[in-house]
Write a structure and sequence with these properties.
With 271 residues, the protein is of the alpha/beta class. Helix 2 packs parallel to helix 4. The radius of gyration is 19 Å and the shape is globular.
Length: 271
């Protein structure tokens, strides 16, 4: 396919933030793009066809894939972007709340991927890009459950890439750091807050807000996705933005004890 027709792309969580910027960037690059949102959105937005889908519901996901195939006949690229956050001490979340987080961030990726794979296998080609986070590579105090979901996506994606190569399908991860979106405004709060964590949790919320305000524009992540989608020989990991690249390098080469001290110092925790 030439640059004017790179194929059909499906982007979950495309109504705002990284998903919206990614859908638009892919459309400009030459893909025919379908985006999803949990609630009804404008049917078409800047050349992107918007469809409703709840990634936590098998029936909703199956209906989405049927709609895309009915309109476009194929799916060449899947970008799993839909996700939610949770900020608080790990002890402050019930098992039910943790399961709800994993249902979106991990099992949502699994549902949509499994629904798309039969089509990609029959085509003999396809690419899947999972939006991870730099928190999929490092620990993150008061983000333990969210970081756990991203660590899970990392392991799943790397393993899946090995499984699917013989079918002409590749899987890649895009790992942003902080991005200027409304993500922090939509953070889930712990469902059983404990007073012992109040002070540090409040400080972490302040740090999160400042980091997001100073973070990368969503367009930076979107361009990384376009690169991952169009590279002839895709890598398994693409860090997005200067900070993400620095953190990945430090995690790889700095001794564990030194990295631990630096992380605690940055988080305002006793070293």
């Amino acid at each position: 396919m030439n640059k004017a027709n790179l194929g059909v792309a499906l982007v979950t969580g495309a109504s705002t933030g990284i998903g919206r910027a990614t859908a638009r960037a892919l459309q400009r690059a030459g893909f025919r793009v379908f985006g999803t949102s949990r609630r009804a959105a404008a049917e078409r937005s800047d050349g992107v066809t918007m469809l409703t889908c709840d990634v936590t519901d098998d029936t909703s996901v199956a209906r989405l894939i049927d709609q895309v195939l009915a309109e476009a006949g194929r799916i060449d690229l899947l970008v799993n972007n839909a996700g939610i956050g949770l900020l608080g001490g790990a002890e402050e979340s019930s098992t039910a709340q943790a399961q709800a987080l994993f249902d979106v961030n991990v099992f949502g990726v699994l549902r949509v991927t499994n629904a798309v794979l039969p089509t990609m296998r029959s085509q003999g080609k396809g690419r899947i890009i999972n939006i991870s986070s730099i928190l999929g590579l490092i620990p993150s105090p008061y983000n333990a459950l969210y970081a756990s979901t991203k660590h899970a996506v990392e392991g799943y994606s790397e393993s899946l890439d090995h499984e699917l190569r013989s079918f002409g399908i590749r899987v890649a991860l895009v790992e942003p750091a902080f991005t200027r979106t409304a993500f922090e405004e939509n953070l889930t709060k712990p469902d059983r807050s404990l007073a012992v964590y109040d002070a540090v949790r409040a400080e972490m919320e302040v740090q999160m807000r400042k980091a997001v305000e100073a973070g990368d524009d969503p367009g930076v992540v979107a361009e990384t996705v376009v690169k991952a989608a169009t590279d002839k020989a895709p890598r398994r990991r693409y860090t997005s933005g200067k900070l993400a690249g620095q953190v990945r390098l430090l995690r790889r080469f700095v001794p564990e004890s030194a990295f631990d001290k630096s992380l605690r110092r940055k988080a305002g925790l006793p070293v």
